[in-house]
Every structure is written in C-alpha cells, then in structure tokens.
Specification:
By secondary structure, this protein is mostly beta strands. Helix content is about 10%, strand content about 45%. The protein starts with a helix and ends in an 8-residue tail after the last strand.
Length: about 170
C-alpha cells in the first residue's frame, strides 16, 4: 500500500510541476551573417538585440518588433570595430550612450560612445582599460551607478572588481 501511495504522490507532484512551466523554443540562424557569436545583449525594453561577430570585429544590431522575440528580428546595422581584436561580452551604461566590450586578445575592456543612445551604427572609440592580471577576459558587468565594474576570465577563475573615479569612464 505504501508503494502505491508513494507512486501516486510522485506522479501527482511531477505532473503538477511539469504543467506549471511553459517552454517555447525560439532560435535565430545567424550563419549567413557571422562565423561565430561571442556576446549577446539587449536594450532595456527588449526591442534591440546586439550580437558580437567573431572572429570578425563587428557589432550586429537587430530590431525586434516584439520585445525579446527572436522570430521578429531584423538586422539593422553591422558596425566594424577594428579596435577590438576578439570581442566577447558587451555591456552598456544605463542610458545607452556608452558601450563596453571585452577584448579577449588584447586583455582589455574597450569603451565606445554611441552618437545615439542604444544605436551601435555610429560609435566612437573612447578609450580602453588593460586588465593587468587576466590573460583571457570573458565577461563584464557594472554597478548600476557606473562607479564600479567587474570582470571575469578563464585565466584563474576569479571575479575582479575595479573602482572608477568617474562613473562609466574606464580610461
């Protein structure tokens, strides 16, 4: 009797939990545009997606007519950023006027100013920060006020923190 009760209980638990989740797979084939993807990010409302093209030095920008829905994406710009040797992750400041890209080969963070917020089609290289203790930087994130940033890498599996004298200015 205990086995029947336990089996029934497990069945009900799994059936209840399984029905509580909804999974919708969505994908986008970017092979015609890029040889490899190293980074992805979205603007805050999900209507723009940014993808780093690697081994090239290109930022691909896509418009999404339905926020975060890849089936509605359209390529809007492809911007060459030759200052970045092997980009990995990109991050933006809170108003979308500054962009930061991890340069894996150069062991640094590259900073760009966007002429129009959240639009990577017209950028200016604004400076760089060499990460002195990391040979394989892979990711970056910022404190919301821009006074501190964090990097991760493959070299020694550490998270590093850097304080900025001026918010959002790594140079």
């Amino acid at each position: 009797m205990k086995k029947i009760f336990l089996t029934l209980l497990l069945f009900l638990l799994f059936q209840t939990n399984a029905s509580a989740f909804t999974f919708k797979q969505s994908s986008a084939d970017l092979q015609s545009v890029t040889q490899g993807i190293r980074g992805i990010n979205f603007n805050p409302d999900g209507t723009i997606m940014y993808v780093w093209d690697s081994p090239g030095e290109n930022m691909l920008q896509y418009a999404l007519s339905t926020p975060y829905d890849l089936s509605t994406m359209t390529l809007t710009s492809e911007t060459n950023m030759s200052e970045v040797d092997l980009g990995h992750h990109m991050e933006f400041n809170s108003d979308g006027t500054q962009m930061f890209i991890i340069d894996n080969k150069g062991d640094k963070v590259e900073q760009f100013t966007l002429a129009t917020a959240w639009d990577t089609s017209n950028v200016t290289h604004n400076g760089e920060f060499v990460i002195p203790t990391e040979d394989q930087p892979r990711g970056i994130d910022f404190k919301p006020d821009g006074t501190r940033f964090f990097t991760i890498g493959d070299d020694d599996e550490k998270v590093r923190s850097w304080t900025l004298a001026t918010a959002w200015d790594i140079d």
